[in-house]
Every structure is written in C-alpha cells, then in structure tokens.
Write a structure and sequence with these properties.
A hairpin with a 7-residue loop joins strand 2 and strand 3. With 114 residues, this protein is α+β, with helices and mostly antiparallel strands. It has one domain: HIT family, subunit A. It starts with 5 loop residues before the first helix and ends in a 9-residue tail after the last strand. A five-stranded antiparallel beta sheet has the order 1-2-3-5-4, with helices on one face. It is 20% helix and 22% strand.
Length: 114
Amino acid sequence: MSENCLFCKIVNGTLEADFLLETENIVAFRDINPVAPVHILIIPKKHIASLAHLEEEDESLMGEIVKATSDLADQEGLAEGYRVVVNTGSHGGQSVAHLHFHLIGGRSLQWPPG
C-alpha cells in the first residue's frame, strides 16, 4: 500500500466507500463522479500504479478483476452492453495512480466518447 494513494486509503478503511464487492484481492465501489447511471470502479487491494506497472505475478489478479467486472455488469442489469475503461498514465487520462477499471453503463455509449 502507498500512504498517499487515495485508493489505498479506501482499501485500508481510512476513507469511506460502500463496497459492492470485496474479495481477498479486489474491491469495487461506485465512482463519486459518475459519467453514466452505472459507473463502478474495480481496483486491486495491492497498490499497482497502472497497467504499465503490472508484473508477471499479477496475471491471476487481472483475471479476477475481469471476471468481477463481468459479474458486476450482470448484477447491475447491463445486458444491453457496457464499457470497461482503464486509463494509463497522465496522457491516458489516469487521475489516480492506482490501477482501476471503470465499469460504465446504463445508457447508450457512443464512440469516440464525448
């Protein structure tokens, strides 16, 4: 864990969040600035700065996150479709330096986003 990381503070309970899902390795909670009716963040409990910082040992963790994302989409009734976004680095739009997946849905989503 990183002392100054917003998401590490959520994982360790320093900052409050209502978890929709919690396992030994990951947590999921609603984004405080949603861009759609459903906007959930899925994060590893382990501090990983971004996709660019993954190690070989993180392979099963990534599988768990992807499966949890699919399960949460089902739970939220997103059968018509949804988007999963992972911003990486400042040029990729990453605002918190802790790997996180956005599950976005509940309305028609266009591409490119706007």
